[in-house]
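Homework help board

Subject: predicted structure for assignment chain

Our instructor gave us this sequence and asked us to write out the predicted structure in token form, then describe one feature. I got the tokens but I'm not sure how to describe them. Can anyone check?
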Amino acid sequence: MTTRRTTSEENNASIANISRTRRARLVAEFEGELGIDYKARATAAEAERRWQIRKTFIVWTVALIFFTIACPKLWIMGQDVDRPFSDLNPIDNLFGEE
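My token output:
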């Protein structure tokens, strides 16, 4: 005699085997019954992705501007020193001896 699978296993297997298009259609229908507007949700998600891209662009632009300003200034400061790092002496600076 064969053993029969339980209905929950059948449901899980049937859900796993449906196509993505059919699954998307079922989800949209279910969300419509609940009053969820999936088009508005998709639009909000797209707007969030765009905002993330804009923020990333702004941050990188500001970082590059600081970098382009700082590099020449550091180069000029380095040219004015006789010996590199001669003004940095942590032992004397910690104890106040100069």
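Reply (TA_rk): Your tokens look well-formed. For the description, you could write something like this. The chain has a mean pLDDT of 78. That's the kind of observation they're looking for.
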